[in-house]
Amino acid sequence: MVAEKQKDAEEAKKPEVIPMFANKYSYNAEISDMGLKTAINLKPIIIPKSAGLYSQQKFGRNKVNIVERLIAHLMVPGHKGKKHLRTSKVMSGRYYTAFNIVYKSFQRIEHDGKNPIQVLVKAIENSSPREEVMSMLIAGQRLAKQVDVSPLRRVDLSLRWIAEGTFQMSAAGKKADEALYEILTGAANNLDSSFPVSKRIEVERQAGASR
């Protein structure tokens, strides 16, 4: 009897186990945009956390799992573009909180009968701009010129807009996991009303006018 009580006490002290992405979701997602094949890492991983293993390597972000990169962007959701819109102290540096938001949103997508990894990849493809505007100094004048966007930056911009859209919807009163679910599904379906897709359209429109 005493041994059973000790065993129950030890079980209660054990930390909560983080669900394993590699065993739950399939990373066999199709990347239809050939320009993003090298920038989206779909290598199966048990827990999407590399703890800065590739941070000092050149183009190290290419080696970071795409789910982990999404979680990293969600940990700084208080920014809107380059301006600090609201405080992000609720999320800053809190990996497990951001992980739960992503995991719960993936559960919602899975409930729809879809592979969450495939939905994430499709959302990134539909919301990543192919061209943007850059300020260049020409003959003593600063002019806005259209430039092509590298694959790595395309993914970064897409994930940033997904995080911004999630934060703005959650700041309006919606649960963060529900907001992320709506952002991902809307972007995957290429809806103009989706925040990251609308940002991509705006950036490409500005680039087209600056050619």
Describe what is shown at a glance.
The protein is mainly alpha-helical.
Summarize the helix and strand pattern as letters. HHHEEHHEEHHH
Q: Provide a count of the helices.
A: 8
- CATH C-level class is Mainly Alpha
Structural class: mainly alpha
**Architecture per CATH nomenclature, i.e. the level-2 architecture:** Orthogonal Bundle
* Amount of helix: 40-55%
Query: What is the domain tally?
Result: 1
Report the span from N to C terminus: 79 Å
Uncertain parts: 12-18
CATH homologous superfamily designation: Ribosomal protein S7/S5
Instruction: Specify the biggest β-sheet.
Output: 2 strands, antiparallel
CATH topology: Ribosomal Protein S7
Cα gyration radius (Å) = 20 Å
What order do the strands of the largest sheet run in, or round the barrel if closed? 1-2
The overall average pLDDT, rounded, is 82
Q: Kindly state the number of beta strands.
A: 4
Instruction: Please state the overall shape, judged from the principal axes of the Cα atoms.
Output: globular
| Approximate strand percentage | 5-15%
Explain the overall architecture.
The chain has a single domain, classed as Ribosomal Protein S7 (Orthogonal Bundle). A hairpin with a 2-residue loop joins β1 (79-80) and β2 (83-84). The strands form 2 sheets. Strands 1-2 form a two-stranded antiparallel sheet. It is mostly helical and 211 residues long. The chain has 8 helices and 4 strands, in the order αααββααββααα.
